[in-house]
């Protein structure tokens, strides 16, 4: 069990060395809770820089968010729509001519504008002749041993 030496026939026990109890510690003792806290802040180049937490300015308190549900339709759009319906109803009550004029102006915004746009699209599509060009090119690469290769093209 103990190593034998040629000088002695008996075994020597292994010695354990202990430090003396009054040995000085290298440096002052600093507890974990007493260490300064380090935070990482993003720098101008996208990296992170360690900074002491005491040197970082406090952030402003953000106001609480309004979590109330938004209206389904925009209130301004509702007022405009209501004013338009009210003007049409008032126009119909003024007399036969004014009511007919307001109805024609209101109808032009929807149906007539779509008809005009459709007519312009048809005029641009059928107004000028189109030319279709088709090119077919066949490229054939033939690779052989030792880096020899040939390429041929054929157009129809």
Low-confidence stretches: none
- In helices, the fraction of residues equals 25-40%
How much of the polypeptide forms β-strand, as a percent range?
Answer: 15-25%
Task: Figure out the total of helices.
Answer: 2
Structural class computed from helices and strand pairing: alpha+beta
For the record, give the distance between the C-alpha atoms at the N and C termini, rounded to a whole number.
94 Å
Backbone shape: flat
Strand order of the largest sheet: 1-2
> What order do the SSEs take from the amino end to the carboxyl end, as H and E?
EEHHEE
Task: Summarize this entry quickly.
The chain has 156 residues and is of the alpha+beta class.
What features would you describe in this structure?
- The chain is an alpha+beta fold.
- The protein has a domain of 49 residues.
- 33% of the residues lie in helices and 15% in strands.
- It has a two-stranded antiparallel ribbon.
- The protein is flat.
- The chain starts with 37 loop residues before the first strand and ends with a strand.
- 0% of the residues are buried.
- The model has no long low-confidence stretch (mean pLDDT 76).
């Amino acid at each position: 069990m103990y190593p034998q030496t040629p000088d002695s026939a008996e075994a020597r026990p292994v010695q354990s060395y202990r430090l003396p109890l009054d040995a000085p510690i290298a440096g002052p003792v600093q507890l974990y809770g007493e260490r300064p806290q380090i935070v990482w802040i993003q720098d101008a180049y996208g990296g992170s820089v360690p900074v002491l937490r005491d040197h970082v300015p406090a952030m402003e308190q953000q106001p609480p968010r309004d979590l109330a549900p938004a209206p389904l339709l925009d209130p301004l759009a509702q007022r405009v729509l209501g004013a338009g319906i009210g003007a049409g109803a008032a126009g119909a009550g003024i007399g036969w001519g004014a009511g007919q004029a307001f109805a024609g102006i209101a109808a032009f915004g929807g149906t007539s504008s779509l008809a005009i746009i459709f007519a312009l699209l048809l005029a641009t599509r059928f107004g000028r002749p189109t030319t279709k060009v088709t090119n077919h090119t066949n490229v054939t690469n033939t690779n052989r041993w030792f880096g020899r290769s040939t390429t041929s093209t054929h157009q129809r």
